[in-house]
Amino acid sequence: MNTLNQFKSFTAHLPQSDIMPALFMGHGSPMNGIEINEFSTGWANMAKSIPLPTAVLVVSAHWFTRGTKITAMDFPPTIHDFGGFPQALFDVQYPAAGNPELAKETANFITSTSVELDHDWGLDHGAWTVIRHMYPNADIPVLQLSIDYSKGAQYHYDLAKELSALRKKGVLILGSGNMVHNLRMVSWEMINGGGYDWAIEANDKFKTAILNKNHQSLINFEQMGSEIRLSIPTPEHYLPLMYTLGLQGDKEEALLFNDKAVGGSLTMTSVKVGSKLI
User: Fold this and answer.
1) Sign of the alpha-carbon dihedral angle for 185, 125, 42, 160
2) Domain containing 268: what range?
3) Whole-structure pTM over 0.85, yes or no?
4) Which residue range or ranges hold the Extradiol ring-cleavage dioxygenase class III enzyme subunit B domain (predicted)?
5) How many structural domains compose the chain?
6) pLDDT in tens, 43-74
């Protein structure tokens, strides 16, 4: 059965009351893509706890574009968009199929802006380092939606709401970034665990707002204090969170996992929104 027919077959039998959760993954170092550690194990366990998706749509911090694009090729290439890591990381290929028909359908759901069907990108490390632990057989189609760097958090939060119909079709929408992400201030002494006081304080503010569904403060993150500005010197790793929160229904709760600071200035804190908690 081809990818499109698999998608149609699954969605035809998916109960309308049963929708996929949405996730935000703190992806951290590309090395997490090949290491079996507490974070990659957390990703794998999350995949086991939710329904098997028909496809995965990733909003990655590493595809920052002018305008909005979605991958629309049959077989997206594995992109090794980093340097200075062991050859074993560059040797990884994640051969998941794409789904051009789903890409077109997703683009049609978005009416607030035009969406370009892209045939040049692929799966960057914000996508495959996480997904290969969740679905190691690469037997689920994976697409990426880019982040328009000319727009603010409110825009991305609102755009996410236009994707909500995909959840009813069994599509797992996954934001991939890091809430606290300041590479210029990384401490190698704390690389295996630990955070600066300001990073812990910022992350605590984020977590409190998420659990209290105080989305507006998270949208207006620049107003949350100096520790937040240190945590988000540039927004690309934070904005994927807006897609997860924008998809949260009024009666859906949030669950935190992989909640740990590393390297002083990074947090791996991840979020699941959905009615069924693990």
Assistant:
1) positive
2) 3-274
3) yes
4) 38-252
5) 1
6) 999 999 999 999 999 999 999 999 999 999 99
